[in-house]
Amino acid sequence: MRDNIEDILESTLFSRDDIHEMCVRLGKQLTEDYAGKEPVLVGALTGAIFFMTDLAREMDVRCKMDFIDVSSYGNGTESSGKVKLVKDVTTDVKGKDILIIEDIVDTGHTLKFMKEHFISLGAKSVKCVALLNKPSRRVDNVSVDYYGSEVENQFVVGYGLDFYNMFRNIPYIGVVKPEVIQAYANK
After folding, report:
1. Does the domain formed by 16-154 have CATH 3.40.50.2020?
2. E strands, the chain, where?
3. CA–CA separation, 10 and 133 (whole Å)
4. Which end of the chain, N or C, is less surrounded by CB atoms within 10 Å?
5. Active-site residue identified among 97, 103, 106, 162
């Protein structure tokens, strides 16, 4: 099987322009909601790196930026349900307003873990902004406070979202063909 993007994708779900519009809209909302505050933006590695960068440029507030790396997927396409902390933030979050930046919230396992983690570290508030929200797959009862768009139960890649740690660098978001997912699962 060739790993060219044309062979992997069924369709384009969000174009570069669509993503830019989401970042502008969310940046404006976050600027209003965090006016006078100094939130700590915490990007969930590795998927949120592009979104966090573009979103932060659309926010007109003083903020700090840090990263956390948690995993519940490993190299697969389904969540294991067990979340592990791979890399913690280096910023002292005690008494701070934390804004978790996620590429997509699916089952909610990692978001629940991160929210509880920051609360246990003494954060003043913990909210989440996700590029994509997939509530149809939600297992844990967690809220996504801000999001760019809801998506159906499709496997999507691009703009940070990956398929077996590939295709994060495509500048738009596409839907992976079901037969490709099946073929990789059988490898």
Report:
1. yes
2. 9-14, 40-44, 64-71, 84-87, 97-105, 125-133, 146-150, 156-157, 173-176
3. 20
4. C
5. 106
